[in-house]
Specification:
By secondary structure, the chain is an all-alpha fold. Helix content is 74%, strand content 0%. It contains 16 helices and no strands. Helix 2 (14-41) runs parallel beside helix 7 (134-165), helix 10 (211-240) packs antiparallel against helix 14 (312-326) and helix 11 runs parallel beside helix 13 (298-309). The longest helix is centred in the middle third of the chain and has 32 residues, at 134-165. The radius of gyration is 21 Å and the shape is globular.
């Protein structure tokens, strides 16, 4: 297993792209915490901080697919770098101006969120042109999902460390400077500069014209909802069982479970079509959420949280493969960006739904929300599985510069005859 990941990371450019993307995404991963700490330091209320974070989140959800579409049309460096700089300048404006005048603060959040570069989708579009074997691409998707767990654990620590050493404003500046450096490191790399999307059909729906992709987005909306609800329910559980350290333990256990599951999943090659495997993984994920409604003691609850997280990273990694198979030709970055947007929106909805559930019924109904989200995610995949049917297809090796004689793998389920693991659009 370790040897397989080692071989992957020793592939030219692979480690650079993964690390650069993670650094570039730090501002987005830490925005809610950094904005909250800065707003409170400036004398703002929790409600105001929540409003500013909400503007950032909504703008981010809107901007990701739009910028992803721009990447597919114009290439990565021409979009990623200007977007990263614009987003960072929005945060710099916020750090300099503070909360007065308030409209400027909201405008700064709008700019920072809207121009967050789609590095996540961009990395997944690059993998097939960097890694020459399909099994390595699948392992890279799993490693990507695992790395996300690490980033969301380490990112807040970097923010709090920056605040302790310097100040809340400095934390905003430092994190966004790291983000621009990460985006630059990716965008000037050879794979990023050479990557080109395949010619795309002019269609206002873009990637959303794929029924299979719509099914996947619908399912992962509910998985995002489940994760958002778990965060709220964990805080409510902690209030009854010893305070904030308990909620941190539950969420950490969830992350550790996802980390372990992702490492194991990516360490081997799995037989069968990824669409079928995704249904099994989401079913296991939904099953893992159900016992949380029992709300046992802290030790057992921590164990259950760890088990609940085991299938999260594998489900994400498998979803990345399915997105690549079902995105219409020439829309791969946009398609991955839609997955990010859907997940973020679902997370926000889960947070909004779990709050009243806890308020009205207590902790157990709060944990019923993620359980319902997991079941709903599985129900979407089962009800619309005809749109995710796999078909036999030849495996096509990705190349950076394809020749006219090489076979092309097209996976547009609306028009193309072949849904193969697409790599040709990256060339």
């Amino acid at each position: 297993m370790a040897a397989g990941y080692g071989e992957l990371l020793r592939t030219p450019h692979a480690a650079r792209l993964l690390i650069g993307t993670l650094l570039g995404r730090l501002p987005n991963a830490t925005a809610a915490l950094a904005v909250l700490l800065f707003s409170r330091a400036e004398g703002g209320s929790y409600a105001l901080a929540g409003g500013l974070s909400a503007v950032y989140g909504v703008a981010n959800a809107v901007g990701q697919p739009l910028l992803g579409r721009a990447v597919d049309r114009f290439g990565q460096p021409w979009v990623m770098l200007p977007a990263a700089v614009a987003s960072a300048l929005g945060m710099v404006l916020f750090a300099v101006v503070g909360l007065d005048p308030l409209p400027v603060a909201y405008a700064a959040m709008l700019i920072a969120g809207l121009f967050t570069p789609p590095l996540e989708g961009g990395l997944r579009a690059l993998w097939p042109s960097v890694l020459r074997r399909e099994d390595q691409v699948h392992a890279a998707y799993a490693l990507d999902a695992v790395a996300q767990e690490v980033m969301f654990a380490v990112g807040p620590l970097l923010v709090t460390l920056s605040v302790a050493v310097w100040s809340e404003a400095a934390a905003l500046l430092v994190i966004n400077a790291i983000g621009v450096a990460g985006a630059l490191w990716v965008a000037v790399s050879r794979p990023s500069r050479q990557w080109r999307s395949a010619p795309r059909e002019a269609h206002w729906l873009g990637a959303l014209r794929s029924p299979g992709l719509l099914v996947l987005l619908g399912s992962f909306f509910f998985i995002g909802l489940a994760l958002g609800a778990i965060a709220v329910a964990a805080v409510a559980y902690a209030d009854e069982h010893g305070g904030g350290a308990v909620s941190s333990a539950l969420l950490s256990a969830l992350g550790v479970g996802a980390l372990a599951g992702g490492i194991v999943y990516g360490g081997r090659t799995w037989p069968g079509a990824p669409e079928r495997r995704l249904r099994l993984l989401v079913a296991a994920l939904a099953l893992g959420y159900l016992p949380l409604m029992l709300v046992p003691g802290v030790v057992m609850m921590t164990v259950l949280a760890g088990v609940a997280g085991v299938f999260l990273a594998p489900a994400l990694a498998c979803a990345f493969v399915v997105v690549d198979r079902h995105a219409p030709t020439g829309t791969v970055t946009e398609a991955f960006s839609w997955l990010v947007t859907t997940f973020v929106v679902g997370n926000a909805v889960g947070t909004a739904v779990a709050g009243p559930a806890v308020q009205l019924g207590g902790v157990a109904p709060g944990f019923a929300v993620p359980a319902a989200g997991g079941v709903a995610a599985l129900a979407v995949l089962l009800a619309a599985q005809r749109f995710l049917l796999d078909r036999p297809h030849p495996v096509v090796r990705p190349t950076v510069h394809p020749t006219p004689d090489e076979p092309r793998a097209e996976n547009d389920r609306n028009r193309a005859v072949e849904p193969g693991f697409r790599a040709r659009h990256q060339a």
